[in-house]
Write a structure and sequence with these properties.
Belongs to the class-I aminoacyl-tRNA synthetase family. Glutamate--tRNA ligase type 1 subfamily. Keywords: Aminoacyl-tRNA synthetase, ATP-binding, Cytoplasm, Ligase, Nucleotide-binding, Protein biosynthesis. Residues 321-463 form the Aminoacyl-tRNA synthetase class I anticodon-binding domain. The protein has 468 residues and is mainly alpha-helical. Among the domains are: 78-228, Rossmann fold, CATH 3.40.50.620; 378-464, Arc Repressor Mutant, subunit A. Helix content is 48%, strand content 10%. It has helices spanning 18-32, 52-65, 80-92, 103-116, 182-192, 205-218, 248-253, 258-267, 280-286, 301-314, 317-331, 338-351, 358-364, 366-369, 378-381, 386-400, 406-420, 424-436, 444-451, 453-464; strands spanning 5-8, 37-42, 74-75, 96-99, 140-143, 150-155, 159-164, 172-174, 197-201, 224-228, 231-232, 297-298. The strands form 5 sheets. The chain has a 3-stranded parallel β-sheet, with helices on one face. A 3-stranded antiparallel β-sheet has the order 4-5-8. A two-stranded antiparallel sheet has the order 6-7. It is elongated and about 110 Å long. The N and C termini lie far apart (80 Å).
Length: 468
């Protein structure tokens, strides 16, 4: 059985678009789930628009998403000689020809065609010309596309797509300066890299019909095609800047975990029954091309956040802490001290529940990240009135001799409340303000356990001493 080989082939003209990230993910899942190879090719033939910075951004985006590739990254530009070699091979076997028509002649042909109501697809007078009549002038190399019949694309997503050959032009393979065009380069690279499955956006569907002509002329095996619908925004229109973040790096900076992003992108246009939340292992096992829908998927931030929250909740604490530090570095946030790192590690059990992003988790962990003396925000400060501070002053001695376990702390608090003739609910708000400087926090008991005896008592004592 032939080994599955997929590829992701972005153009380095900008960041890793979220649509490109999903295409990469689909290719990665299909290959990884079948013990195949996932290759990466940078299609940098457009030298005017391709930049090293964009290439770096794409590589960083894939790295954040955890989409590892096999072998070295292939530069399409570096393979230009090989692309030209194939074009000359097509010339030699009569499957391509030299076209000496100038741009002015081509435009004159199209204007006349428009005036007569004919197809404006250029019909080169050099297609069947005698080589002996060829002038000593610049020329392009064109592929001889069959004039009659049909080209059929048996697409794994779109189904059977039939295009009449008289709707296809004689595609340029080499420009007049001898450089290969993108359409030729893609086919040669896919063939030479052994790509068995071309999984890409359905905006390339018409390209497939033209590219198949090169495969046929070279007697090369066709890959399996799967053209996936594009991603639309919540309003049903093509995803654009008005819908929010577009680059994978922006989603990292917003604090979404990579596992949640992979899960969401996998579900964006593909389904496995009613399953919404799943692991990488399940995705690799389940992913297949017949689960991809034909209609554009709609990006939904609420669904993304919901899935990310589920992944944060089940993540291993050490891995989560490492990804949080990577998020802070990417977003320009603080660098954690060792004490903060240790504190977050101890407190992760009470921080990751119901947090849908890293900023939410870190806000819950503010009591760990803040320094003593704790500064209460405006809402929390309202809970530290004179009466509340007085109660905190009385509470502290009762906690000095308590064993620092949840059971003992709860028992000590219950005894204190009974003595004071009050309920714990009355104490919770000022304690939150004292321990975290926030009105919304994890439970008071969780905060005291994570902070430890000395730090908890110090914060409670300091809050009790705040002047009126």
């Amino acid at each position: 059985m032939t080994q599955v080989v997929t590829r992701f082939a972005p153009s380095p003209t900008g960041f890793l678009h979220i649509g490109g990230a999903r295409t990469a993910l689909f290719n990665w899942l299909y290959a990884r789930g079948r013990g195949g190879k996932f290759l990466l090719r940078i299609e940098d033939t457009d030298r005017a628009r391709s930049t090293p910075e964009a290439t770096e951004a794409i590589l960083k985006g894939l790295d954040w998403l955890g989409l590892d590739h096999d072998g070295e990254v292939v530069s399409q530009f570096d393979r230009a000689d090989r692309h030209a070699e194939v074009a000359h091979a097509l010339l030699a076997k009569g499957a391509a020809y030299k076209c000496f028509s100038t741009q002015e002649e081509i435009e004159a042909f199209r204007e006349a065609a428009r005036a007569d109501g004919r197809s404006t697809l250029f019909q080169s007078p050099w297609r069947d010309a005698d080589p002996a009549t060829q002038p000593d002038a610049p020329y392009v190399v064109r592929l001889k596309t069959p004039k009659d019949g049909e080209t059929t694309i048996n697409d794994e997503v779109q189904g059977k797509v039939v295009i009449r050959n008289d709707q296809l032009d004689d595609m340029v393979l080499l420009r007049s300066d001898g450089t290969p065009v993108y359409m030729l380069a893609v086919v040669v690279d896919d063939h030479d890299m052994g790509v068995t499955h071309v999984i890409r956006g359905d905006d390339h569907l018409n390209n497939a019909a033209r590219q198949m002509g090169i495969y046929t002329a070279m007697a090369w095996d066709l890959p399996t095609y799967a053209h996936i619908p594009l991603i639309h925004g919540p309003d049903g229109k093509k995803l654009s800047k008005r819908h929010g973040a577009l680059g994978a790096d922006e989603y990292q900076k917003m604090g979404y975990p990579a596992a949640g992003m992979r899960n969401y992108l996998a579900r964006l246009g593909w389904s496995h029954g009613d399953d919404e939340f799943f692991t990488d292992a399940q995705a690799k096992e389940w992913f297949d091309l017949n689960g991809i829908g034909k209609s554009p998927a709609r990006f939904d931030f609420k669904k993304l956040e919901n899935l990310c929250g589920q992944h944060i909740a089940v993540a291993e604490d050490a891995a989560l802490l490492q990804e949080i530090e990577e998020f802070l570095a990417a977003s320009g946030g603080i660098a954690l001290t060792q004490a903060q790192r240790d504190g977050l590690g101890r407190g992760m059990y009470c921080l990751k529940e119901r947090a849908k992003s890293f900023p939410e988790l870190l806000e819950k962990g503010h009591f760990i990240l803040t320094e003593t003396p704790v500064e209460a925000d405006e809402k929390a400060a309202k809970a530290l009135d004179a009466v509340s501070r007085g109660i905190l002053g009385k509470l502290t001695p009762h906690l000095h001799n308590a064993s620092w376990t949840r059971e003992e702390l709860e028992a000590a608090m219950t005894r204190f409340c009974d003595e004071q003739g009050t309920k714990f609910g009355k104490l919770a708000a000022p304690m939150r303000a004292a321990l975290a400087g926030r009105a919304v926090t994890p439970s008071v008991y969780d905060m005291m356990l994570v902070l430890g005896r000395d730090e908890s008592l110090a914060r409670l004592s300091q809050a009790a001493e705040i002047p009126a």
